[in-house]
Write a structure and sequence with these properties.
The chain is mainly β and 528 residues long. The chain has helices spanning 129-133, 248-251, 363-369, 393-396, and strands spanning 2-6, 12-13, 16-26, 31-42, 46-47, 53-60, 74-79, 97-106, 113-123, 141-145, 185-188, 197-209, 212-226, 231-232, 263-266, 272-288, 291-304, 332-333, 340-344, 347-349, 372-381, 389-390, 410-411, 423-424, 431-432, 439-440, 462-476, 479-488, 495-496, 502-503, 510-511, 514-515, 519-527.
Amino acid sequence: SVSAESIPSIGKRIQYYGGYLQDDWRVNPRLTLNLGLRYETETPAYGVNDYFSFFDPWAPNPLAGTGDIPAGATGITRFQNRNGNGKYLYNWPKTNFGPRFGFAYKLTGSGDTVIRGGFGIYFGNPVTSALVENGNAPFGQTYSLAHPVPFSLKDGLPGTWLALPTDADLVPAWGTRGTKFAQGSASSLDPNRPSNYSQNFNLTLQRQWKKISFEAGYLGNLSRHVPSTAINLNVIPPSLLSRTDIPERSRRPFTVLNGDQSNVSIGNATYGISNYQAFIFKTERRFANGIAWLISYTRTKWIDNVNFPGGGNPSNSNDAIQNIYNIRGERSLSTGSFPNRLVMSPIVQLPFGKGRRWLNGNSVLDVLAGGWEISTLGTLQSGGPFGVTVLNGGILYLGDSSGGQVLRPDLVGNPNLSGGRGTPAVGVRGVQWFNTAAFAIPPKFTFGNAARTIPGIYAPGLVNFDSMLAKTFTIREIVRAQFRWEALNTGNTPSWGVPSTQIGAGTFGVVTSAGGRRIMQCGLKLSF
């Protein structure tokens, strides 16, 4: 067999320009204002050799109405600096002004109680690396052939196999079915994509009492036009799902590519919204008299409608878009929304031995009882919400054989178990986590009414404590040795996996995996 590719150097470029004005104004001894204005803009990506292109699914195709391509068909390939296109193939936002405002006000003359707040607009990166790395379809060729190969290795590849398109081939109809370089899929980009931005705001109250500080506050982040992971635009519209009398290709919105299940993937689609709000409480004691701590608690609520690129999915992978013709219907709790999180890290030096409260003058007892220190890092965190889908629902029930359609069930009851979560599953090894009878497969050719994440049920949470016990030996004034015993996951607490969330799977609703184990280690450190 043989596989070979020819991809010339593309040379993508982007320029970023930014500037800011900022002033800290002390209005009076109690009030300070932070004022600012930022401007930033980033050019669209372009290729130094004019090697940049993308599929525009909405532009009229010049071959529409010829051959088996229906009249009115849309979808062309746009090439940089060709066919009436300029250097940039998508819009260049130039009005990205981001104001900043902050304040700090001392409620008392001593300054031990302060209220702080702020607001700002921040613009995100308009593209991800995936967008810059794509857009090279005509400028690289790949050839693969299994046995029997009709040539000898000593003769080399036939010259026509990896021939790149000429300038005459780079026309709007490039990739269209029936042409020399017909394609079965295409990478798309919205040429009018807006800038993504977020509005950040916060208000906190801080109090210092002796060596202990307290802080309580509220913060929010409202993001708009957030880029999402790649979305297939070429899915059958809901009104045509049941029209099996019409060929599948003809029921798709873009019919100019090869195949009945051609994929038109739009990258960095700016369809995303994100609303994040949090209440925070923190207390900290600076190290003194052998005691210190840092404790923080966060109560959050995060709502979004897309899975962000690079953001991962802490709960499961079932938050793909069910109906791209109804993006509003995707709005739900984010899979990254963990309602409660408590983190604590106390440090305690036992009050025995040299330089401490007791046994300070007894060098013999200091060797045994002095220099001990205990610390821990503990995390208690709620689980995240998750969604439920139908196994192979797009193919079996929606009739879209591309395999890219996601089908969610109908929510017909209370998904919470009457006896509580964590009961042993019946007939399957694992833990029953939610009521599977609350979900039903919707009628054929219809979408389910269940939200992207199911309200009221969450994946298993996290309980973890990492602990340390250490003893310091003073050999000389400038030479010390420390023995440390550390235990990761001190309580050997299991970390439960996410339950199976696909109707049709044999383990639907059951947690079948768990991780987490106690790891202990010892160390010796010499300081001089």
